[in-house]
Amino acid sequence: MSLKIIPFILFLGLFLLFAAPVAMGIINLGNGVGMALSAVMILIVLFWGKFTGAVGKCWDKPLGKIVLSLLGLAAAAAIVLAVVISVFMIREANDPPKDENTTVVVLGCKVKNGAPSLMLKRRLDAAYGYLSEHESVCAVVSGGQGSDEAVSEAQCMRDYLVSRGISPDRIFMEDKSVNTEENLRFSKAVISENGLPGRITLVTDNFHQYRAELIANSNGIEAYNISGKTSWYLLPTYGVREWFGIVYYKLFG
């Protein structure tokens, strides 16, 4: 039993890490997959003898060899793909422009009771920091109004930045979009209509930057990145969800 303690604690810790956001009402593909895989690994550790016995019996049969080999190859490919995607995500998390010939585009996120959610506030704080240091740069705040939101995400973001001292003349609203693709496509139109620099500086969460930049590039937008801070306990959940989002976008976007 002693040999099982370390892997058991490891996988139990992973399960709890993925489960933690559920207490905050965050349930998505990321923590769903994370909890499921962690639970499977916990069961394998607890019932290691039965597991290896079942695998051995399966391997003794020709069809079993094929099935296990395919499962092993699929698992290895998934791990390699996850590592590669993670490297790109980390690389694109913070890539600010070298000069002020840019327009900041802040991607929307949840509004709660008319105020920014924690995730949105951190995006706005990152945008505020950049706009404060580069006073010639303007911003487009992008996000529509959900059925459970008192105001549009764009209006909420504009109000927040103005309350912190950013001139309203520097802030343009895009308040019709409902997803990242529309955020960027509609923001591009706002930028063009107002004669702003076409090269943008995306402000979103670090885990979201890579996919957002892919979507920007597909819309003919040159993009740089500045990331809001993400709570460490949310990174695994949103990071895993983003793996699936990036693969889906690459295949069907």
Write the layout of secondary structure elements.
Blueprint: H1 2-19, H2 29-46, H3 48-59, H4 62-91, E1 103-107, E2 111-112, E3 115-116, H5 118-133, E4 138-142, H6 153-163, E5 171-174, H7 180-193, E6 200-205, H8 209-218, E7 223-228, H9 235-252
Parallel strand pairs: 1-4, 1-6, 4-5, 6-7
Antiparallel strand pairs: 2-3
Describe it.
- The strands form 2 sheets. Strands 5-4-1-6-7 form a 5-stranded parallel beta sheet, with helices on both faces.
- With 253 residues, it is an alpha/beta fold.
- It is 58% helix and 12% strand.
- It has 2 domains: 2-91, no CATH class; 103-252, Rossmann fold.
- The model has no long low-confidence stretch (mean pLDDT 95).
- It contains 9 helices and 7 strands.
- The protein is elongated.
- The protein has helices at residues 2-19, 29-46, 48-59, 62-91, 118-133, 153-163, 180-193, 209-218, 235-252; strands spanning 103-107, 111-112, 115-116, 138-142, 171-174, 200-205, 223-228.
Top keywords for this entry?
253 residues, alpha/beta, Rossmann fold, five-stranded parallel β-sheet, two-stranded antiparallel sheet, 58% helix, elongated
Q: What's the total count of β strands?
A: 7
What is the fold named in CATH at topology level of the largest domain?
Rossmann fold
State the CATH class of the largest domain: Alpha Beta
CA(first)-CA(last) distance = 48 Å
Strand content: 5-15%
Return residue spans where pLDDT drops below 50 for at least 5 consecutive residues.
Answer: none
* Mean pLDDT across residues: 95
What's the total helix number?
9
